[in-house]
Amino acid sequence: MAEARTVDVTRLIDERGVSSFQVWLVVFAFFVVMIDGYDIAALGFAIPALVRDWHITDQASLGPALSASLLGMLVGAPALGALGDRVGRKIAIVLSCVLFGACTWLTVLTTTIGQIALLRLFAGIGIGGFMPNIIALVGEFAPRRFRATLIIASFVGVGFGGGIPGPVAALLVPTHGWQILFTIGGVVPFIVAAVCWIGLPESVKYLTITPSRRDDLLRMLKRMRPELTFGPETRFTIGDERQYRGWSPKHLFADGLGLITPLLWSLFILNLMGYFFLVSWTPFVLSSAHLPMSKAALAQTMFQLGATIGSWIICVPLDRKGPSVITILFALSVPFVAVIGYVGTISEPLLMAVEFLGGFCVLSLQAGLNATAASIYPTSFRSNGTGWALGVGRVGAMVGPVVGGALIAMHLPVGQLFVIAAIPFLVGAILCFWMRQLYVVRFKGTGLGQRAVLDAAATHA
User: Fold this and answer.
1) CA–CA distance from 76 to each of 36, 97, 163, 302 (Å)?
2) Domain 6-459 is found in CATH 3.90.1150.10
3) What does the pLDDT look like over 354-394, one tens digit per residue?
């Protein structure tokens, strides 16, 4: 390519399509977000051993420990998301991994629930930080028509990671104690941080809007498009940069997003409320209902397996239909979650099937929400926008385990517990239908690439 006066980086990404570079980045992100999935499920599998070893009789007292990391995520997601917008996604991801790994490893030294809760709080700040940044990073390297697909493909790592604590608990906890779950969860993030520092690329769109990083931008463009050359006078722009700068939350409600943003936040809250209720208490509840711990662990693994497969399956429909797909998944989650308690006491094979279908819907729709958040905000505050959605959503994630502990302390029937757990998904289906209508009006279409279409048209008009 000859020297050009102005080069639109967004157009360069869209023209190339999915290359080996994007595939490599998605695989990389897949293993990074596995940490989130593992952490979400680990404490839930440690609870039965904790209750036995520490002679805990008040199960409700475990609720704050289960919610502490979620409170940290509430702080970490918007704060470190904003940091990623200011200093780069890569630095924010590495710092998040180090903080999370250190606090998780120190959990093995604790002797009280209060100590666990404190460490989980700071671990949550770390884990809350890398999710919005990795989502924004993948989204900014993705061609418009494949953006949701690539984001979800990387997010599948959450479900895969969430399936690991079950086998670890069944095989290693009986001989090594509950501490083995946190030893593994603490060491791996340091390895991931080192690999990220060496091999993780910085967002090419972030480099474009940061004049001091021009040399880094040129190297990245050469890595992505080795056949292109750029002269010293070439000016680089991005189609969705527009007029926004900085990290102020007020931008999240401008440009036709005044109702879409709060509805999106509500959906994050509702889904994470139900999801964290399920992953935090299902192993304990099922084992309390006289299901062997190995079977309870297998059921939770089936939940995560369903999530992994479901996230892959919805990629293409989500790219094309956007929030419509999320609405359907909210609605389907209601019956599958509601019957878990009843089938758990009737048939183990049926329980495994229902857990699989429940995971298919619940975590798939969370992947869809993540992709939506990464699609409706422009690059200049994409990490911040995604971080706020994830951070506010952690309010629901905190409430879920606490409410679950209170309901269990009331000795409600197992079947009734899961019927209550299905309520957030019912409300979510209604609100998501409303958001879908607003999305279509604002972005003139249903697909998740509509923002890029409109912004590119405005830039080149």
Assistant:
1) 13, 12, 24, 29
2) no
3) 999 998 999 888 888 988 887 787 766 776 787 788 778 87
